[in-house]
Write a structure and sequence with these properties.
Chains A, B: Catalyzes the NADPH-dependent reduction of L-glutamate 5-phosphate into L-glutamate 5-semialdehyde and phosphate. The product spontaneously undergoes cyclization to form 1-pyrroline-5-carboxylate. Chains A, B: One of its GO terms (cellular component) is cytoplasm. Chains A, B: Its EC number is 1.2.1.41. 2 copies of one chain form a homodimer. By secondary structure, chain A is of the alpha/beta class. Chain A has 2 domains: about 1-220 and about 390-405, Aldehyde Dehydrogenase, Chain A, domain 1 (3-Layer(aba) Sandwich), CATH 3.40.605; about 225-375, Aldehyde Dehydrogenase, Chain A, domain 2. Chain A has helices at about 1-15, 20-40, 40-55, 60-65, 70-85, 125-135, 150-165, 180-190, 205-215, 235-250, 265-280, 290-295, 305, 325-335, 345-355, 370-375; strands spanning about 95-100, 105-110, 115-120, 140-145, 175, 195-200, 225-230, 255-265, 285, 300, 315-320, 340, 360-365, 380-385, 390-395, 400-410. Chains A and B meet through strand 2, helix 9, helix 10, helix 15 and strand 13 of A and strand 2, helix 9, helix 10, helix 15 and strand 13 of B. Strand 16 of chain A pairs parallel with strand 13 (about 360-365) of chain B, so a sheet runs across the interface.
Chain lengths: ~425, ~425
């Protein structure tokens, strides 16, 4: 019953957290950063255990790299906490206030959500990061990391939870589930009323598993099958620059593009230049029939390609009739993350903005900007690709909800 | 496979609905209102069938009354649609826009959620009401009403869906599930990706069933175990007026109060007056031990009472130590709907506002104002008692989400 017990403790901590002074939270975050650095030997020793176990299990090197901590990565976590302490606290702000004819003043006040569960995979840095963001936004957090990283995560939580408590944060504000039994996480996903929100962070399988099994509200994050549409009115030099940036600057992240759609009127002019440039940068191109009739060396794209997030130097290309077919294709195949149109035509730009059903819709810019830092939020807990509560990069404000505050002087309803 | 088929049609309709001109939506709502009036004989005949079947099943009179339509109620539905047509359309509004150092303009644009499922009980007026609100906010709706009202609901949907279509609304924007098999609604609750949001409307059992079984995002509505706390600094005359209003003006609704908490310092002075007044108005009082030591005729309140939404002329009363114990009691037992403090003390008022974890927190006013109309939203689809996405009265804006719109001139990420 570990999750049930910890959720009860978290719920009661969350009541006090909601009232906590901003200075106490900021001081706690600084002390947590200090304590991470002080505890680095202990954390690295715990991490070594995890690495060894993973190696013995034959886990592949790229995953072991995600799991691995070193001094620099621990410093990175500590700096992350310091950055969070410097961000403005959204809790308690009244965003709008209006007066009703009967004299009631009605306002919307930002407040914490309550208890947030984070279900994640092998990167231990998520532990400190998520704990810091939840604390600053006044939420209690229950961390359920991957079993591969359990020793590392426990060591990190020991350090930061202790530092938080010493700084005046209620006990139980930061907790970790240590039981690796799958049943524990299954029950966690049904704790409506005790856990207010679950945020899964990790691969598509993890996220889909949480969405399909949780009755606690979930925020879906991360998967990015992003598109650039090059309109017939595009500045082609700009289009090429944006595509190269969005595909190759960091191909393994969710806001990198996976697809380019090209208006048929410019296919002869633009396609060969783009294919040559991307190929020279090591990108494998897969194309529709029309693409391959112009660039015969391009591999064939199949139906699966249109849905796939490669997270790699692969790009699928399709020639489309016009902006309407581009919009239709994107709304059919996109994961709802980020899409960009390159055009100098005002009407097409507006149509694209209005019709595309994704979290971030760009005109004449790289999709790589869909990021809490780049949007000016300072830090993010993830990028929501669903539509309820929050969409796109989720910063501190998206970790809060609101309540109506109504100030009267004796009003009753007639 | 009725829900799957209808959800696919709704999804495709929702794409076109998102783009629909505001005037087309308003015209459609007016035509829907007209068509309801024109179809009233057909609707009343269908309703008669439902009433007869319910009577034969021995359904109790109060439920049959909810089910019953007459000319006035049909006119009421039609007027509701006209009122919705007169409200401002939230879709397409850019609420904030900011500039980043690289010149990117980032804004948040309101857009429809997509496909909304409404699961409700026997009141057929919900059918027209929910369809109107979803249409105006650009969402496709799938209605799943109670089987008792099926003939009435089908007749209403026939009228309004036809009128909408003739007015230029895409086919499939308003659909009703006709299959009364429980499996149909069970599958509806798992249609992630096809249905974007479920809103259950009805009794606590219906709502809890949807929350516990749905993996589609749900908005929990309705249950109101609301409190008034009378502080030692209260204007006692005002307190009495507010309590009488909040308890007796309409006891069967969710924003009526079910509990009064009284600061111990004023118990001797306030309690007897309040008990006398409420008793004279036909309210049954149940009290804590201290309450009963002052007013011995008051019945005993047990643990269950503190959690119960009576929806009736019953009130439970508790004497508390101070504002902190009032807050603790409310946060423990409340359903998170509406709570009010009566006080002239500024610090206590601010503490109450900041600490109470409910959708609407009042100072010196009746809780009966928690209502879309009273808040100035014009109409509401329900009152959310959960914390994700929307809290409190949900109007047209709460039936939308947002997307980020990013306007650039060739920005790429370095």
């Amino acid at each position: 019953m570990e999750v049930e017990v910890k959720a009860d403790i978290a719920k009661s901590a969350s009541r006090r957290l909601a009232m906590l002074d901003e200075n106490v939270k900021n001081e706690a975050l600084k002390n947590m950063a200090d304590e991470l650095i002080k505890s680095k030997d202990r954390i690295l020793k715990a991490n070594e255990k995890d690495i060894l176990a993973a190696e013995n299990k034959g886990v592949k090197e790229s995953l072991i790299d995600r799991l691995r901590l070193n001094e620099k990565r621990i410093e990175g976590m500590a700096n992350g906490l310091l950055e969070i302490s410097a961000l403005p606290d959204p809790v308690g702000a009244i965003e709008e206030m209006w007066k009703r004819p009967n004299g009631l003043q009605i306002g919307k006040m930002r407040c914490p959500i309550g208890v947030i569960g984070i279900i994640y995979e092998s990167r231990p840095n998520v532990t400190a990061d998520a704990a810091g963001l939840c604390l600053k936004s006044g939420n209690a957090v229950i961390l359920k990391g991957g079993s591969d990283a359990l020793n590392s995560n426990i060591a990190i939580v020991e350090a930061i939870a202790k530092a938080a408590e010493v700084s005046g944060v209620p006990k139980g504000a930061i907790q970790i589930i240590e039981n690796t039994d799958r049943e524990e996480v299954n029950r966690m996903m049904k704790l409506n009323g005790k856990i207010d929100l679950l945020i899964p962070r990790g691969g598509a399988n993890l996220i889909q598993n949480v969405i399909k099994n949780s009755t606690v509200p979930v925020i879906e994050t991360g998967v990015g099958n992003c598109h650039v549409f090059v309109d017939s009115y595009a500045d082609l030099e700009m289009a090429l620059k944006i595509i190269v940036n969005a595909k190759t600057q960091r191909p393994g992240v969710c806001n990198a593009i996976e697809k380019v759609l090209i208006h048929r009127d410019i296919r002869e002019k633009f396609l060969p230049i783009m294919v040559e440039k991307l190929t020279s940068l090591g990108v494998e191109i897969r194309g529709c029939e029309l693409t391959r009739s112009i660039c015969p060396d391009v591999k064939e794209a199949n139906e699966d390609d249109w849905r796939t997030e490669y997270l790699d130097l692969i790009l699928a290309v399709k020639i489309v009739e016009d902006v309407d077919s581009a919009i239709e294709h994107i709304n059919k195949y996109s994961s709802g993350h980020s899409e960009s149109i390159v055009t100098e035509n005002y009407t097409n730009a507006m149509k694209f903005i209005k019709s595309i059903d994704s979290a971030a819709v760009y005109v004449n810019a790289s999709t790589r900007f869909t990021d809490g830092g780049e949007f000016g939020f300072g830090a993010e807990i993830g990028i929501s690709t669903q539509k309820m509560h929050a969409r796109g990069p989720m910063g501190l404000k998206e970790l809060t909800t609101y309540k109506y505050v109504i100030l009267g002087n004796g009003q009753i309803r007639e």
